[in-house]
User: Fold this.
Amino acid sequence: MAYVRTHRDAVPDAFKDTISLEAHRKAADYTIDKARLANVDRIVGLVILLLFTVGGGIDVVNRFWAGFELSPLVTGIAVILSTMLLINLFELPISLYQTFVIEERYGFNRNTPKQFITDLLLQTGLSLAIGGPLLALILWIMQSVGNYWWLLAWSIVMGFSILMSWAFPTFIAPLFNKFTPLEDETLKKRIETLLDRCGFQSKGIFVMDGSRRSGHGNAYFTGIGDSKRIVFFDTLINSLNHDELEAVLAHELGHFRRKHVLKMLVASALITLTGFALLGWLSGQDWFYSGLGVSSQSNALALLLFMLIAPVFATFLQPIIAYFQRRHEFEADDFAAYYTRPIYLINALVKLYRDNASTLTPDPLYSAFHYSHPPASIRIANLSAKSS
Assistant:
């Protein structure tokens, strides 16, 4: 925050001709406001974590459901789901403030209270409908399979992740947004030509009504196998010209052609496998429960405790993951620069930085730890070198 504030009143030399001082200051203020809220969110999250673990919150929830004398499996499902619902409820004010105060202040919010509540209920319903059976299956495996239950549970979770990657664009995403086939025939023809040059097969090119909730723009491809589709936010379509849109798409295709999705899936699988193996050991340790404020032991309590505390230790993986993500972004930029002119992607990125109020001067140490994308100046310099 201090670094961004210090550089608030001077546009970096590389952007002086394309980003106004007013836009640069807006991006700095937006970044600082989001950082302040993120700090509040961390404190709230810490308090909630301590209350539910060493503070005895999970123990209270567990005793409540144990009083109904249900089967261990049903009790375990109820304890986990009710705890997660309570935590999400406590964190809801942060999300409301982000949407209706910060995003509204900077002109990005298009959401309404009705839409926000509808989305929240739909997300909760889907989580219960999809996550509930998966949770029940994992708890049953923990109870029935033996010492190496974690290996089977990991296999099922990874299979479920791949299934959801296939189902998301076709069945889940349309519940939240409207996806319409790209109608601009000139742009569509250019994109299809690019796809042919890159050897990419897609089930279609769609425009998503992102402006329904936010003024931010983006593009992505999603799905696996026969469900792959290309998606442009309508805000992006309205902001970029055809050359720039083609360059942005080429960048996204670069992630596919350079197998970044597969590499991240493999990394995720290895991390998840390690996590399940660790849980398999921790679930048999008395101190794991007593040290985290739980007076009894069960598979459900072990799983719940691990789900809550694992992100704390996973923080140490963040800079490593971010490093590889930034490498992938450079590789995707290089791919786009090969199949389109680098200047087109540069122009698109500058517009995206400006329209999304992304700071051009992030703190180097903070960005190295947290950012999945290279800082603007470094990324633009890399592309500019390919133009010469």
User: Anything to note?
Assistant: The mean pLDDT is 93. The longest helix spans residues 72-105.
